[in-house]
User: Fold DUF6503 family protein from Flagellimonas marina.
Amino acid sequence: MKHLFLLITLCYVTISQAQDITGSELLSKAIAFHDPNGNWKTFDGEFKVLMESPNSSNRLSTISLNTPQQKFSLLVEKDGDSYGYHFDKGICNAFLNGSNEISEEDIKSYRLTCDRGETMKNYYTYLYGLPMKLRDPGTLLDDSVQKKTFNGKEYLVLKVTYDENVGNDVWYFYFDPETYAMEVYQFYHDESKNDGEYILLEGLEEINGIKMPKTRAWYMNKDNKYLGTDILSKS
Assistant:
């Protein structure tokens, strides 16, 4: 009877702790899993992302990021061409097939503007910096942690919104309740319309001591339409 009482007490404490955890505490535990040594803030490395989608040829992107020196570069290889951007302390240069001399026609065709480059820089540093990027200024964490079942598994879910000058989308991040690994995230432009997408994460690839999701499969919220998969690898 004593052992049974102890077991019941332990189960109650576990459930109680899961219920009482705050959004900030959940994020701290998730960051401790993915970036146990705090390497993201001084990240200096390179990785590749292969994008597969049902209506397009494969695209291979090589991302180089040196946070201390404020450098970022993106090299895209697709259909026999290579193009991308270099950023060095905010100074942007675009290139196509090894040359910075790009015609107006090709700038338009390949969308090789620095505005586009800035968008891609923010895209890759945000997605591959998660969940650590949720500590960035302008990120608003919901204090209440939800429990949701997704694809038959129960998760601890963190709702995130942003200051107006940062973004208008609503995001939900799904964490394993035991390991605190990030396994799903989802965003809406207008949640009442069930728009936006959800992303399923599988496997882990360790890059510079950070456990990043190996694959990201993208789907539409409204009809579960499959959009594509990103596959991460070391450079």
Notes: Residues 2-20 form the longest helix (19 residues). The chain is about 20% helix and 45% strand. Helices lie at 2-20, 23-34, 104-110, 114-127. Residues 217 and 229 are 4 Å apart (CA to CA).
